[in-house]
Amino acid sequence: MSKSSPNSYRIPLPSGWGISNFAIHFEGEDLSEATEPFAANIIGQLRTDVRAETALETVMAADLSVLRNSITGLELRKQGSVRINERPCQEFEFTYQDNNERKLQQLTIYLQRDSGVYSVTGVHIAGERFEIVREAIYQVAQDMLLGTKGNPEGTIKT
User: pTM to 2 decimals?
Assistant: First the structure.
């Protein structure tokens, strides 16, 4: 693994291999004094559980159904369409309490590229702390849509 810029790493892959998921965590908060530290994290994944042509709305509805049946106190904040670099995506956002009684906020964005369905999910303590990382969640989704091409002029419309 080589570092290509202060916040970027390049991982060479063997021929014929691709990345199916990754997880990153936020290091921009000082958690040294926290009694129960919690760092925001973002997970990106190729959805190998669905066919590439599956409608994003269908994948989102199935995921929401599972979440509603497994998380007590889930409060849906938003659900619907979002355009990232003028491409249609789907998203939902909700809050819930974890086992430590912390109120968490989660945003999941669904996108299609390179004949695959992907999801990007970010979670942090609900409210002000979540808002600190919201833009990064959209940025990761945008970067996944663009693949290795990159586009600093890209736009996100919520």
Answer: 0.85
pLDDT over 80 at 157, yes or no: no
**CB 77, CB 95: distance < 8 Å:** yes
Distance (Å, rounded) from C-alpha 133 to C-alpha 150? 20
Domain ranges, ordered by start, for the chain: 19-26+37-157
Out of 3.30.2420.10, 2.60.40.730, 3.40.1000.10, 3.90.1150.10, the CATH code matching 19-26+37-157 is 3.40.1000.10
Q: How confident is the model at residue 20 (pLDDT cuts 50, 70, 90)?
A: confident
32 burial class (0-12, 13-18, 19+ CB within 10 angstroms)? Answer: exposed
- pLDDT at position 149 is 47
